[in-house]
Design brief:
3-stranded antiparallel β-sheet, Helix Hairpins, alpha+beta, 7-stranded mixed β-sheet, Heat Shock Protein 90
């Protein structure tokens, strides 16, 4: 009222008042009539206020939905752009060398073409498996068979599988581990995670050694894969576990492998991280719940 008296202009304001345990919202209007009188009006606008809040919430939800849709569209476009390139490369090799093998004149030449076809077929199969697993994880429809897993059995199997996949002169070493240690997890998914980490290590380690193994850390088993390879630039470390995160854009790969590793580890109750320095190699770690015998 003082403000209206001083300025000669009307004023509108709102206030809240709790009546019988119910919060009411009011609008106050004050008008100058002449030099002596003011017209003061107060009305309950609780229904209007609730409608405004509902509308504001709806607008907020619509904005969030629009942002989510735009981000989904962007990711879909990025996904299709990446996948079209990654699918064409091995597919072209398979088609091209399948034709060439029929014209090969020597056994050595046929074996060389067959090896190229086999390698690119495996690459294409792994690509489709990654896409299907990622879709299943995002839809929360991927099934896990969680049970006690004897870890030394997995590691010995992977050592035999990857010992011939390293680059010339690179040694793959399974460190001394507790042969009787068990973890809670899915056998196939644990193999998938470690295989992915070992595959990356062999790809980016031109010389030196690759070590892998596990150890007990409180109530968890901590797995690790260490290499003496090219390392990861600092600016890429923060994004390496995101979709399409890659160490090197010029090396073939979808950039989905580490995303899958992160999602699989988290689904089984663990976490994954890395330490790396460019030119000094990388160390990947992940944990799973320990089962004490």
């Amino acid at each position: 009222m003082d403000k209206v008296i001083l300025t000669g202009e009307s004023s509108t304001a709102r206030h809240d008042l709790m009546l019988d345990g119910v919060l009411h919202h009011y609008e106050n209007r004050i008008f100058p009539l002449d030099n002596k009188y003011l017209l003061c009006m107060c009305r309950d606008i609780s229904q209007q206020w609730e409608a405004e809040q509902t509308n504001a919430q709806q607008q907020k939800e619509l904005k969030a939905a629009r942002v989510k849709a735009e981000e989904s569209d962007r990711l879909k476009s990025a996904f299709l752009a990446n996948m079209s390139h990654e699918i064409r490369t091995p597919l072209n090799a398979i088609v091209g060398f399948s034709k060439l093998i029929t014209f090969a004149t020597s056994t050595e030449e046929k074996n060389q073409y067959a090896e190229i076809i086999e390698r690119n077929s495996e690459m294409l199969l792994n690509l489709f498996n990654d896409i299907l697993d990622l879709s299943s994880l995002e839809a929360d429809s991927l099934k896990f068979n969680i049970r006690p897993i004897k870890l030394t059995d997995i590691c010995l199997q992977l050592k035999q599988q990857f010992c011939h996949k390293t680059q010339n002169g690179v040694k793959l070493i399974l460190d001394d581990v507790d042969a009787d240690m068990y973890a809670s997890g899915d056998w196939n998914r644990i193999i998938q995670i470690i295989s992915n980490l070992l595959s990356n290590a062999t790809k980016f380690t031109p010389k030196g050694e690759i070590h892998f193994g596990y150890r007990e850390k409180e109530d968890f088993v901590e797995f690790y894969v260490k290499d003496s390879g090219i390392g990861i630039p600092a600016e890429r470390v923060a994004t390496i576990f995101r979709r399409f995160g890659k160490v090197n854009d010029f090396v073939q790969g979808t950039g989905l492998g580490l995303t899958l590793c992160r999602m699989l580890v988290e689904k089984m109750g663990g976490r994954i991280w890395l330490r790396s320095q460019e030119g000094q190699g990388s160390r990947f770690y992940f944990t799973l719940p320990l089962i004490r015998q």
